[in-house]
């Protein structure tokens, strides 16, 4: 039985570019960095950037890393757009909350999620 998520590993092709994306575009803290493995602190969840596996962007589904926006989802979307993120659409609203998809520097699927208000 699983008791929680220990870490998320994300394949990357260019470690320096990937570290810069997670640090500079998303504003997360880099806690360990090397050519083949780097660790990012995402509010207590460790994201491992794995340079030992090849990243292969595809549109056929797969894992998505979902982040909580620091402020409003609208403000965070504007902020990452200004910093050059590859935003994959607009904010969509659902009964369970709002999401907006984007890609990291290596083509991995990411999104911001905001729960419903009220």
Automatic annotation (TrEMBL):
UniProt-listed Pfam families: Glyoxalase (PF00903)
Cited InterPro entries: Anthracycline_SecMetBiosynth, Glyas_Bleomycin-R_OHBP_Dase, Glyas_Fos-R_dOase_dom, VOC_core
UniProt-annotated stretches for the region Disordered: 98-118
VOC domain location: 4-115
Alphabetical list of PANTHER family matching this protein: GLYOXALASE-RELATED
Full protein name: VOC family protein
């Amino acid at each position: 039985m699983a008791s929680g998520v220990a870490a998320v590993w994300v394949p990357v092709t260019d470690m320096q570019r990937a570290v810069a994306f997670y640090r500079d575009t998303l504003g997360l803290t880099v806690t360990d960095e090397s050519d083949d493995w780097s660790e990012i602190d995402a509010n207590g969840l460790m994201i491992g950037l794995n340079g030992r596996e090849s990243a292969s962007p595809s549109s056929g589904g797969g894992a998505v890393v979902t982040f909580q926006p620091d402020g409003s989802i609208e403000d965070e979307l504007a902020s990452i757009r200004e910093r050059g993120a590859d935003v994959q659409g607009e904010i969509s609203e659902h009964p369970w909350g709002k999401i907006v998809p984007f890609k990291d520097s290596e083509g991995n699927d990411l999104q911001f999620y905001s729960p419903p208000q009220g």
